[in-house]
Amino acid sequence: MLDREGFRPNVGIILLNPTNEVWWGKRVREHSWQFPQGGIKYGETPEQAMFRELEEETGLLPQHVKVIGRTRDWLRYEVPDHFIKRDIRGHYRGQKQIWFLLRMTGRDCDVNLRASNHPEFDAWRWHDYWVPLDMVIEFKREVYQLALQELSRFLSRPERAKPRHTGRYLRQQQTFHQHDKAESKNEIAADSSTSLTKANEQDQPT
Question: Is the pTM of this model over 0.85?
Fold first, then answer.
């Protein structure tokens, strides 16, 4: 579904945690990161499309989030020709997006990147609100900047950050955490063994 100018209606989602960090997803088998987004189907409102895409890409349901704000108008980006299928070149120009700012009310464990049969992301993490745009594919960067700037007016004072276990963000980190824990246990065991040996030596008659 394209408009007269060749732009496909789309929604983008910026999801906040209590400390105003944003949900940042790594695209499947790529080194680029982005926010959840997706097309608006025929007959859908932008908000209906947003909740559908949110569930498909992150596994989160309406009860897991609260809508804080949205952009006033469409934000557009053009897609370079080499990213466009040949059969729609000359008709399709890019995306026009309504961006939503959400506050997560659920828990991190509610996120499920395998909620659909065609996952968009294979890892995720929380990131500072002003994400590094060099991690975003080049033709989307201006829209990201515009969306972040416009929606920043809805940001409230963040809650005090709580300690969190970083192993839940990138799956590959879990191995490192387990390795570190094993080393710590070995060090504790070694210290206990050394202390016991010294105590036994002190108890021996001279």
Answer: no
